[in-house]
TrEMBL record, chain B:
Domain 2Fe-2S ferredoxin-type: 1-76
Organism: Telmatospirillum siberiense
GO molecular function terms listed in the Swiss-Prot or TrEMBL record: 2 iron, 2 sulfur cluster binding; metal ion binding; oxidoreductase activity
Keywords: 2Fe-2S, Iron, Iron-sulfur, Metal-binding, Oxidoreductase
Protein name, UniProt field: (2Fe-2S)-binding protein
Pfam family, one: Fer2
Keyword Transport part of the UniProt annotation: no
InterPro entries: 2Fe-2S-bd, 2Fe-2S-bd_dom_sf, 2Fe-2S_ferredoxin-like_sf, 2Fe-2S_ferredoxin-type, 2Fe2S_fd_BS, Beta-grasp_dom_sf, Diverse_Oxidoreductases
C-alpha cells in the first residue's frame, strides 16, 4: 500500500466520522422541525396557489385591526400563561414550576413601567420571533417563541394592537427563582441557535389551503406541541415523537396523533371538532386542567372553518402508539355499586366514591346531571397512571365555558393523600380499561407542583 | 321558556338554561320541599328524580333536562316505592330535625327502584351521598329494609 493511498484512507475516514457526527447531531440533538413530517416543498406565501394561511378567517377579514388582533391573541392563547388564577387578564405573574426553579410570566398589558407600554413594533417582533427581550436579555423557552417564530409579522402587530387597546395594569410579577446554571439567560442564545429556526411560516405547496391554515393555527398560533410533544434533555420539542403525549406540570397531555387505540385516530371529525370547540365530545370525555383552559380561553373562540382546519391538520400527523395506554373502555359500569368493581382495590376508594362522587357521576359513570361529568370513555379514566384523575380530584374544575359555568368541587383540602390515591385507583378500576396503582407519595408530589 | 314535567304536570318557566333546577323548584315554582344544603352536590339534601334516577338538583342546569320526568318530594308518594318508604319513615320515626330527609327519602326510593331487596352494603353505597347531621342513619337503614319487606 502506498503512502498516498494510506493518507487518502485516513482523510476519508475522518470525513466519514465528521459526517456521522453531524448527522447524529442533527438527528439526536436538533431533531426534525415541527412541520418536517409533512415532506414536500414549502413556498413563500405569495407563491402559494391557495389562500393565505396566516391572519384571521375570512369572516373576520373586514374587522378593524384591534378586533383581528383579539382573534389572533385568543388563537395564540396568550392569556392562559400571562394571567394568574383570579388575576387581571394579561397582567402576568403566573408561576411555572420547572425542575430548574420557578418562572413567572411577565405583564403584557400596556403599563409603561411594569408592562410592555413602551415597546415598539420591532421590540415585540424580536421577542416573539427570536425570544429576545427589549433590553437584549434572552427569554426562556417556557415562552413558546420557537412556535411563535412562525407567526407572520402582520399577525404579531395585530396582537400588539389588541394588547395595547386593553387597560394598563400596574403589576410587577415576582422575580424568577432559577438555580445556577439555569439562571444564566445568555445560555438561551445557544438553545435558540439549536432550536429556534427564526423563520416565518411557509405554506406547503403540496398540501391543501385547509391543511396549511390548520398547520399555521396548530404550530404558529396554538403551539399544541408545547404540551403534547415530548421534550428532549435540552427541553426542546422532540418531533421524532410529535404529538405523542407527555406530562406537563403534573398533568398528562395525551397522545393526539392518529393512533387508533391510544391517540385520536378513532375519533370522527365531529368528535374532534366538538372537543376543540367545547372541551367535550360524547363518548370521548371532557377536557380538564390545562386543556380545559386552552379550550375556554382559546379554541372555543375560533371560527368553525378554523376548527375544521385544525382537524384536517391533526389527521395528517403520523400515528405513534403510547404503549402504556389501553384503548378506552366504551361501556358504562354496572348501575349496582356491588358489581363492576375489580377485586384487590382499596375499599376506601369505593366508600369515598359513594359519598362524594356518585351523586354526580353515577355508579355507571354516565352522569345524569351533565354530559361534561360523564366519565365513561374518557382518556383520564383510561390512563393507568391515574395522573389526571388524581389532579382533577385534587383541584376540581371551574370552567367558564361558552355554554355556561361548569363546576366540580376540589377535594384536595378535604382528603388525605392516601384517600385521594384510593379514590383515583377506584375510579380508574371501575370506569377504565386497565387498573392503576397511584400512590400517596405520588399524590403528595402532585400537590407540591401546584 | 323552558317546559318541565314535574310530578306529572307540565310547567313552563322563563329562566336561563344554566339556572340550577333547585332554584327553579324552590324560588320560581314554590316547591320548597326540596332543600338547599351545600350547593356542590356533596350533601344530598337537594335530591330529586329524573326518570326515577336520583340527581342533585343544585348542580343540574335546568336547560339540560328536556323531556325527562322530574319527581320531587311533593310527588314521591304517588309512586309505589315512594309511598312504601314514606310509610316506613313514619312507622319508625326516622326523622329528627328533618332538613335532610326529603333527600334521604328520594335516594331511598331510587334504591328500591333498582334493588328491591337491598342488603347493608347496597344501602350504604346508595345512601352514602346523603348526609344527616342528626345521625339518623341507623333508623334510615332499618326503615329501608322494612319498606322493602312491605307489600
Amino acid at each position: 500500500m502506498t503512502l498516498s493511498s494510506n493518507g487518502m484512507l485516513i482523510r476519508t475516514g475522518i470525513l466519514a466520522v465528521i459526517v456521522i457526527v453531524v448527522v447524529a447531531f442533527f438527528w439526536f440533538v436538533v431533531g426534525p422541525g415541527p412541520l418536517d413530517f409533512a415532506g414536500g416543498k414549502t413556498v413563500a406565501i405569495a407563491a402559494y396557489s391557495g389562500a393565505n394561511p396566516t391572519g384571521v378567517p375570512v369572516e373576520f377579514a373586514k374587522d378593524d385591526l384591534v378586533t383581528r388582533g383579539r382573534y389572533l391573541t385568543q388563537a395564540a392563547d396568550c392569556q392562559a400563561c400571562h394571567t394568574t388564577e383570579g388575576g387581571l387578564p394579561f397582567a402576568g405573574g403566573r408561576a411555572f414550576k420547572t425542575p430548574f426553579g420557578t418562572l413567572y410570566s411577565p405583564n403584557i398589558t400596556p403599563d409603561r413601567e411594569t408592562g410592555i407600554g413602551t415597546w415598539t413594533d420591532a421590540d415585540l417582533l424580536q421577542a416573539i420571533h427570536q425570544g429576545i427581550s427589549r433590553d437584549g436579555t434572552r427569554l426562556y423557552p417556557a415562552f413558546p417563541y420557537a412556535a411563535y417564530t412562525y407567526l407572520a409579522d402582520a399577525d404579531v402587530l395585530a396582537i400588539k394592537a389588541y394588547l395595547f387597546s386593553l387597560p394598563a395594569v400596574h403589576n410587577a410579577p415576582p422575580a424568577n427563582s432559577l438555580a445556577f446554571p439555569y439562571n444564566q439567560r445568555w445560555l438561551m442564545a445557544i438553545w435558540s441557535f439549536l432550536y429556534n429556526p427564526d423563520q416565518r411560516f411557509q405554506p406547503n405547496a403540496e398540501r391543501s389551503p385547509e391543511w396549511n391554515r390548520g398547520a399555521y393555527l396548530a404550530e404558529a398560533l396554538g403551539h399544541c406541541g408545547d404540551c403534547h410533544t415530548p421534550r428532549n434533555r435540552l427541553q426542546a420539542l422532540d418531533n421524532h415523537r410529535k404529538f405523542a403525549g407527555t406530562v406537563v406540570q403534573g398533568w398528562r397531555a395525551y397522545n393526539i396523533t392518529g393512533d387508533q387505540d391510544t391517540g385520536v385516530g378513532a375519533w370522527n371529525n365531529a368528535e374532534l371538532t366538538s372537543y376543540l370547540s367545547t372541551g367535550h365530545a360524547t363518548g370521548r370525555g371532557t377536557a380538564s386542567g390545562p386543556m380545559a383552559e386552552a379550550v375556554d380561553l382559546s379554541l372555543a373562540h375560533l371560527s368553525a372553518t378554523d376548527h375544521a382546519a385544525i382537524v384536517a391538520y391533526l389527521r395528517s400527523v403520523p400515528a405513534i402508539p403510547s404503549p402504556d395506554l389501553p384503548a378506552p373502555k366504551a361501556e358504562p359500569a354496572p348501575a349496582a355499586p356491588k358489581l363492576g368493581t375489580p377485586a384487590g382495590i382499596d375499599s376506601r376508594g369505593q366508600k369515598l366514591f359513594a359519598g362524594a362522587c356518585a351523586g354526580c357521576h353515577d355508579w355507571t359513570g354516565v352522569s345524569p346531571l351533565s354530559p361534561l361529568a360523564t366519565l365513561t370513555g374518557g382518556r383520564a379514566v383510561n390512563d393507568p397512571s391515574a395522573a389526571n384523575v388524581a389532579q382533577i380530584i385534587l383541584l376540581g374544575a371551574l370552567r367558564q365555558t361558552i355554554q355556561g359555568v361548569s363546576i366540580m368541587p376540589a377535594f384536595g383540602s378535604a382528603y388525605s393523600d392516601v384517600e385521594i390515591a384510593a379514590l383515583a385507583n377506584y375510579v380508574v378500576a371501575r370506569f377504565g380499561a386497565k387498573p392503576s396503582a397511584i400512590t400517596a407519595e405520588e399524590i403528595a408530589e402532585l400537590r407540591r407542583m401546584q | 321558556m323552558i317546559n318541565l314535567r314535574i310530578n306529572g304536570d307540565m310547567r313552563a318557566v322563563d329562566v336561563p338554561g344554566d339556572m340550577p333546577l333547585l332554584w327553579v323548584l324552590r324560588d320560581i315554582l314554590g316547591l320548597t320541599g326540596t332543600k338547599f344544603g351545600c350547593g356542590i352536590a356533596q350533601c344530598g339534601a337537594c335530591t330529586v328524580h329524573l326518570d326515577g334516577i336520583p340527581v342533585r338538583s343544585c348542580l343540574l342546569p335546568v336547560g339540560t333536562i328536556g323531556e325527562r320526568a322530574i319527581t320531587t318530594i311533593e310527588g314521591i308518594a304517588e309512586t309505589p316505592n315512594g309511598a312504601k318508604i314514606q310509610k316506613a319513615w313514619l312507622d319508625l320515626e326516622v326523622i329528627q330535625c328533618g332538613y335532610c330527609q326529603s333527600g334521604q327519602i328520594m335516594s331511598a326510593t331510587a334504591l328500591l327502584n333498582v334493588t328491591p331487596n337491598p342488603d347493608d352494603a347496597d344501602i350504604d353505597a346508595a345512601m352514602a351521598g346523603n348526609i344527616c347531621r342528626c345521625g339518623t342513619y341507623v333508623r334510615i337503614r332499618e326503615a329501608i329494609k322494612q319498606a322493602a319487606k312491605s307489600v
